[in-house]
Amino acid sequence: xxxxxxKQGRIYSETLSYDGFSYKPEDCIACPxxxxxxxxxxxPGQEYKETIRTGSMAAARxxxxxxxxxxxxxxxxxxxxHLAMELDIIRSSSMVEAVxxxxxxxxxxxxxxxxxxxxxxxxxxxxxxxxxxxxxSLMHDAMSGAKALxxxxxxxxxxxxxxxxxxxxxxSEVERDCELSLxxxxxxxxxxxxxxxxxxxxxxxxxSGAPVTCETAPHYLTLTKEDRMPGGRxxxxxxxxxxxxxxxxxxALADGTIxxxxxxxxxxxxxxKAAGANGIVGLETxxxxxxxxxxxxxxxxxxxxxxxxxxxxxxxxxxxDTDDMAVFDVTNPYVITPGDFLSKGRSxxxxxxxxxxRCLLTVHNGKIIWQS
Length: 372
Known about the structure:
Helix 2 links the parallel strand 5 (64-69) and strand 6. Helix 6 (196-207) packs parallel to helix 8. Helices cover 32% and strands 18% of the residues. It is α/β, with parallel strands linked by helices. The chain is globular. Residues 6-13 have low confidence and may be disordered. A six-stranded mixed sheet has the order 2-1-3-12-15-16. It has a five-stranded parallel sheet with strand order 7-8-9-10-11. Strands 4-5-6 form a three-stranded parallel sheet. It is built from eleven helices and 16 strands.
């Protein structure tokens, strides 16, 4: 069988053979399997929302073979013993490669640093995602420690002195952390960028030589606050912002200011969402939504999308190149139906959207982990 393959910035034809299925080149693309630097798998401690098994199944169904789970767990992976609990479950349950973060501070409370040296060999980096670190001196010490260990700080930038709807809640800490990255030389990766001010700060920080990278999420690239509807499907942190913010993000994709697209996959129970919990699921919708809204409309080419969702995330964190592959049907549309999700989470603003790019096949370590 033949299909169109996207790899390392090129599109070309290549003969593939998987389990006797045929993928026509005019219907499909194949590319390196996707990598997500920002997911919440909720285990240990909140298995009713998601488990490593169900989260990794959702990842495989979405074309991902590598994910980085965040540390807002119970217990928080802030010590070797706590981290070992998560790593044991990953080894026994995950269908994809899952490289977790350790927290930056004990209990993610923003007061005292973890023992980074003991945790560093086993984690992608350090993050208190879900919480900003208010203490500038503490963040300086965290960056200095990460720099010495060759690890990255992945920052949730949020100043709670401002309401989330005020973009200063995001960009004020983005500005501070970019300054600290330049000062310490530490690698800084900024989570879920949503505002035009943050984008400009990051752009200028890169020009100044700060080793800063950033991600945004599919919903910030395709929706605005004007699209919000009741019911919790549009409730996330940071919130959806203006059309001007969305347009700034799209421009930043084109000029390279944004390095990666991550889902911030964040499942909650239906009851929690109804009560206002922040977070939506995204692993099973990210590629189709972005291919439909960005590539089919000519905003970015599919090669660029693959860079942002696969090759750049691996490069930023120093993960090795992979032969893992995903195949997507980019010709035949389908409707996003949360009832079909493998994730325990069902809350998505893209419910009912007609999209192109259903994942047909995901291959990890030479084995098929998803086939539609």
